[in-house]
Structures are given as C-alpha cells and as structure tokens.
Design a protein that fits this description.
Elements: H1 6-17, E1 40-42, H2 52-56, E2 62-67, E3 72-78, H3 87-91, E4 98-100, E5 117-126, E6 133-136, H4 137-147, H5 155-165, H6 188-199, H7 205-213, H8 218-225, E7 231-233, H9 238-248, E8 252-257, E9 260-266, H10 267-275, H11 286-289, H12 303-313, E10 317-322, E11 325-331, H13 332-354
Parallel strand pairs: 7-8
Antiparallel strand pairs: 1-4, 2-3, 3-5, 5-6, 8-9, 10-11
The structure holds iron/sulfur cluster (2 copies).
Length: about 350
C-alpha cells in the first residue's frame, strides 16, 4: 500500500480538529454561509432615496412610489419577485443603502405577509414653484457632500444644507414665477424658466404647467394608442402566431410564459429566423425564435428613457408592466411619434420667445 503524502496527512489532521462542514439541521437551525447572497434589506441611514436600485432591478421587485402631498418617497422590495441577483447592492450609489443579507426567500410561507416586503421611506423635496418632485432630501445632501464648496453654486443644494441648521417651511406652489424665486427649491424646468425670466421676459406658471405636460411618458402614450396588447403563449407554433398577427393586424406579439412576458415575436423574427433558415413554421415553437430577453418599462418611464433603452438594446417593442401585470406594449413608432410631438412644441415655444409673445 502506498504511503500517504504529507498534504493528505495535513488535510486529515485539519479536518479532524475543525468544525463539521455540513449544517446541523434539524438538530439546529440551518445557518447560511456568511457570503450567501440572500434577501436584500435597506439601511435607512445609508439609503438616500435616489431610486437607482429600482431602475437596475431586473425582476422589477423594487417599486418607487412618491407621495408629493405627504412629501415622502417609499421604496419597496417585493421578496416574492426578488431573484437575489445582487444588482441593487452592486449599483447602489452609496454602496450601503441596500445590502443582500443571508436570509433565504424559501422560508416565506405567505407572499402577501408584511415580512414578504422590505421598505424604506425618505423625505421628498418638492418644487416650490410648480409642485413637481425634485428628489429626496438625503440625496441632495449626498450630492452636496461630494461637490464640497461647489454645492453652494446651486440653490437647491444650498437650501438643503441650510435646512440642516433650521427647518424652514417650504412655500406652496404659486401661480406666477418671480425673480426672487431663484432662492427657492425649484425643479430643473422652473429653475430654467426663472433664470430666463430674469434675463428676458415674464412667464406664468400656467405656461410651465402646460410645458410640463409635454414631458410625455409611457402612460401618456398608452392613453393615446390604447392598452390593448396581443400575446401568444411561448409553446404556440410560429404558424399560429402568424395567424394571430394577421387576424389582429399587428406586426408583433408579446410572448407569455406563466403570466409573464418572456419575449417578443415579430415579422422580423419570422423573416430572419424562420424563412431565411428554411425551417418549418408548423413545427417551430415561438420560444425558439422570439427576441429574448425582453425589457419591460413602467407607466412612469419617459419617452427619452424608452428611446435610450430601445437604441442601446436594439429593441423595437417594450412591454409595459403596471402593478405586476402586463398593461400594454410600446413600439419604436410610438416613441418616435411622441418625441416628434415634444420637439415640435419646444420649437413652437422657442418661436414664441423670439417673437416676444411672453412679454
Ligand atoms: S437582489 Fe436583484 S431582484 Fe432582488 S431586489 Fe435586488 S436587484 Fe431586484
Ligand atoms: S441609495 Fe441605494 S438603496 Fe437607496 S435608493 Fe439609492 S440605490 Fe437604492
């Protein structure tokens, strides 16, 4: 019999004196390893309420809800939808606002129970001119810390700092902008208008509010085109999908699996992945040729954000998810149409300035 090597003797001795590798369950609770990436948890002091974690969450488990009347932003993680990917922790701007704990999600017996959700609330800063949401107060203070003395160049950051010393009640939105509004919490649109007002002419808040409505988002686009959305199950054949497209007179269908969108099947996919490859549309399943993964948007997503997503990811359709269900689909045509409308109004607005109609 060959003699054991030194390394093997060392390992045998180490394992003899070290703790068992396996868990002691059911004799004791099954503790996860410290490096296990489990359910994420907010740290109220470290989170500044920027909402980045919600934007990067691939399963849309994090929802952000602003309550301008109560001046509060609520961020909520739905553990039932969280896939524990760690993106929220990875991309958190402070690095510590949300942290994956070592808790398992499999222990959740009731997905609607309070412990199935994790949330944090942050104070909102509201535009004193038009009432729009500017951001969270802690976020402004975080930016101010990073900018140092330069932060005093921006009234919003300066006011956030001053309010640490003495709380000053913000004023209610007003019917008209004035030059002295420079030193008020103001959203980017109002701030631009106040500076322009100071330089050139007068402008009522009514005009600003009209202008505000020109910031078209997914909800506006769905209101215009309707919320009808045509879907096809992922195990349907390509032929069945084509028949459905012909019947509904549409160029693409959202592919569904277990009630969730998993891809998009379009005429382009048919042409490139079925016709050109000479495969049978009667035998091929939609899931084999659909465009996947699919990126979803929310009703609050703006046209610019949709355009960036579509351009970067090379998508022509974006399903809309509202309160966990499919609420519509936005095409590249809808986005381009909305952007042209927005730009047309901006041009008209600039013409009004040039012609002096705001005097
Ligand atoms: S761990 Fe992943 S899925 Fe879960 S909340 Fe964070 S980003 Fe979303
Ligand atoms: S600070 Fe971090 S945890 Fe808080 S909202 Fe921003 S990204 Fe999310």
């Amino acid at each position: 019999m060959p003699l054991p090597k030194l390394r093997e003797i060392k390992e045998a001795l180490t394992s003899f004196f070290s703790a068992p590798y396996t868990t002691k369950y059911p004799a004791g609770p099954a503790a996860s390893f410290p490096s296990y990436r489990g359910l994420p948890k907010y740290d109220k002091d470290q989170c500044v309420g920027c909402g980045t974690c919600a934007q990067v969450c691939p399963s849309l488990a994090i929802q952000v809800a602003d309550d301008p009347d109560a001046r509060v932003r609520r961020l909520r993680v739905d553990y039932g939808s969280c896939i524990q990917c760690g993106q929220c922790q990875e991309k958190c701007i402070t690095g510590k606002g949300i942290v994956n704990t070592s808790a398992y999600s499999l222990t959740l017996a009731d997905v609607a129970a309070p412990e199935a959700f994790e949330s944090v609330e942050k104070d909102l800063v509201i535009c004193e001119c038009c009432g729009a949401v500017i951001g969270c107060r802690d976020h402004l203070l975080w930016i101010k810390e990073r900018l140092g003395a330069k932060a005093y160049g921006h009234p919003n950051l300066m006011l956030a700092t001053q309010r640490l010393l003495a709380e000053v009640e913000p004023s209610e939105p007003k019917s008209r902008l004035r030059r002295e509004d420079q030193i008020k919490d103001a959203c980017a649109r109002c701030r631009q208008a106040i500076v322009t007002l100071d330089e050139f002419s007068d402008m009522g808040t009514k005009d600003l509010q009209k202008e505000g409505k020109k910031m078209v988002n997914v909800r506006d686009m769905l209101e215009e085109k309707g919320q009808e959305v045509w879907t096809v199950p992922s195990d349907a054949t390509v032929f069945e999908a084509l028949r459905a497209m012909e019947k509904k007179n549409v160029g693409a269908l959202v592919v569904m699996e277990a009630g969730q969108p998993v891809g998009i099947f379009s005429e382009r996919d048919y042409a490139r992945k079925v016709v050109l490859k000479n495969i049978s549309s009667l035998e091929t399943r939609v899931r084999e040729v659909m465009a996947s993964p699919v990126y979803c948007v929310k009703p609050e997503t703006t046209t610019e954000e949709c355009m960036v997503l579509m351009t970067e990811k090379k998508f022509r359709h974006l399903p809309v998810i509202s309160e966990g269900r499919l609420a519509g689909v936005i095409s590249i045509g809808d986005v381009v149409k909305a952007l042209i409308g927005e730009h047309k109004m901006t041009i008209e607005r600039l013409q009004d300035y040039i012609m002096g109609r705001y005097m």
